[in-house]
Write a structure and sequence with these properties.
Number of helices: 8
CATH class of the largest domain: Alpha Beta
Number of strands: 20
CATH topology of the largest domain: FAD/NAD(P)-binding domain
Oligomer: single chain
Largest sheet: 9 strands, mixed
Number of domains: 2
Strand content: 25-35%
Helix content: 25-40%
């Protein structure tokens, strides 16, 4: 068993699996360490589907990354022969003054994106499952869809292994440190050495990257599926959507299997110190926190059919941290994805591989600096 590598990747979820693949594709000797079984449900890269969109409300700086992410997901589909991404229109809706809708419009203007404006009444006529007030507005974009999240992680892992990467499950990293001209990572099974380290540890970055510079907190979130009348919730009659409301933001995806329509709140939960504070048991309170809000805007929600708990790892400004570690130039970090990062995993793998190899990348990482105020 080898104990020396070019690069060690800590955390083999969405971002780490992509990093392992991209580094192995470049011919590097890679070790990926994952504390849980591979493609697990105790982090942030599970729940069957994740939205991918281009007219990015969080800021125009994300749009080039979204475009590159689409291209890399399509390339991964070609490589593996697996269907990973389904195109679907995305509706962004909100009341007058909605920050989310304003952010979408800003990205549309900055990048000359194709989008269509709708009133609340027009939304309801086009998509009969919705019940938005007349004073709401919406922006519909076509360059959007959803990713099959566990399949994406599995495809990256399998591709990395096929290219020579070693990926070890159920082997948590207890410590890492810079040593001479490299790094050492200690687990219960041994100590591994490498020239470079990539930390993509999700919520566990609160511990492994406590000194990264940007404060990291954890937020418990729930993903819920409701039984519905199938004909109103097919992806040709019901889009992906993200909606502002006075009670908070929520989002949904069309019915693609027997579980029904998938809905979830976005943010609006306590910030916790770390993953140890997260309860993984779904309770009646989780449904009660979402159903009244969703029921105001989505018609015909039946009984709850399924649910899962996941985690956001949030930064104060809700932007990511993707950078070389401020104190250790041989360590690259990708964390704090704040509940909207998975869609970018394919390009984040490319970016952290660049950072590991040469400490820089052609992608604009200004908003994601670990040194930002």
């Amino acid at each position: 068993m080898s104990t020396s590598f070019d690069v060690i990747v800590l955390g083999v979820g969405g971002m780490g699996s992509a990093a392992c693949y991209e580094l192995a594709r470049r011919g590097r000797r890679v070790l990926g360490l994952e504390q849980f079984p591979l493609v697990h449900s105790r982090g942030s890269s599970h729940g069957h589907t994740r939205i991918i969109r281009t007219a990015y409300a969080e800021g125009p700086a994300y749009v080039p990354l979204a475009r590159r992410a689409f291209a890399r997901w399509y390339e991964l589909e070609q490589r593996t022969g697996r269907h990973l991404l389904t195109e679907c229109a995305c509706l962004n809706a909100g009341p007058p003054g909605s920050a989310h809708v304003a952010g979408v419009r800003a990205s549309v203007r900055a990048h000359d994106l194709a989008a269509e404006e709708l009133t609340g009444d027009e939304i309801n006529r086009r998509y009969p499952a919705f019940n938005f007030p007349a004073d709401y507005t919406g922006v519909v974009e076509r360059d959007a869809g959803f990713l099959y999240v566990e399949d994406c992680v599995r495809a990256h892992i399998d591709s990395a292994v096929s290219l020579g990467a070693e990926v070890r499950a159920e082997e948590p990293a207890r410590d890492w440190k810079a040593v001479g001209d490299g790094v050492e990572v200690t687990t219960d099974k041994g100590t591994y050495r490498a020239a470079r380290l990539v930390v993509t540890a999700g919520a566990w970055a609160t511990k492994l990257l406590a000194d990264v510079g940007v404060p990291l907190r954890v937020m418990r979130q729930t993903l819920l599926w409701f039984e519905v009348a199938a004909e109103r919730f097919r992806r040709d009659t019901f889009p992906i959507f993200i909606a502002d409301a006075p009670e908070g933001a929520f989002y949904g995806l069309p019915m693609i299997d027997a579980r029904g329509v998938k809905l979830a709140r976005h943010y609006d939960a306590p910030e916790l110190r770390g993953p140890e504070d997260v309860s993984w048991d779904l309770t009646a309170d989780d449904e009660a926190a979402l159903r009244p809000l969703a029921g105001r805007f989505v018609r015909g929600l039946g009984p709850l059919s399924a649910g899962q708990v996941c985690m956001y790892t949030v930064t104060p400004d809700r932007n990511f941290v993707i950078d070389v570690h401020p104190r250790f130039p041989r360590v690259s970090v990708a964390c704090g994805f704040s509940g909207h990062g998975f869609k970018f995993a394919s390009v984040v793998g490319e970016i952290v591989a660049d950072l590991a190899e040469r400490g820089t990348t052609a992608h604009d990482l200004g908003p994601f600096s670990a040194r930002r105020a």
